[in-house]
Design brief:
Strands 1-3-2 form a three-stranded antiparallel β-sheet. The model has no long low-confidence stretch (mean pLDDT 96). Helix 2 packs antiparallel against helix 3. 36% of the residues lie in helices and 42% in strands. It has a single domain, classed as Alpha-Beta Complex (Ribosomal Protein L22, Chain A). By secondary structure, it is α+β, with helices and mostly antiparallel strands.
Length: 110
């Protein structure tokens, strides 16, 4: 049985989040959380919250032990982009794109 958790609108671009999730793909939940705890990027904390949520969903909804869970699929999709502008010299502007990401984690009992 597969159990999923999704977090939408996380700060940061999808390629930067994908660098973090590629590290934990295919690992056990406990091992993945240990790895994410010591990664230096701020997005690692957000990904860890989604992994914890997937484990909690499996435990609460389907009575699956969190120690026997493995991350089978994890992916980051592009979310919405907020567009802002920064003033520049000579009356010009340059765009500032504030990107967001949707992260989905699917765990399965080993």
């Amino acid at each position: 049985m597969e159990v999923r958790a999704t977090a939408k609108g996380l700060k940061g671009s999808a390629p930067k989040v994908r660098r973090v999730i590629n590290v934990v793909r295919g690992k056990n939940v406990a091992e993945a959380l240990g790895i994410l705890r010591f990664l230096p990027t701020p997005t690692a904390r957000q990904v860890a919250k989604v992994v914890k949520s997937a484990a909690a969903n499996a435990e609460h909804n389907f009575q699956i032990s969190p120690t026997s869970l493995k991350i089978t699929k994890i992916f980051a999709n592009v979310g919405s982009t907020v567009k802002r502008f920064r003033p520049r010299s000579r009356g010009r502007v340059s765009p500032v794109l504030k990107r967001s990401t949707h992260v989905t984690v699917i765990v399965k009992e080993v």
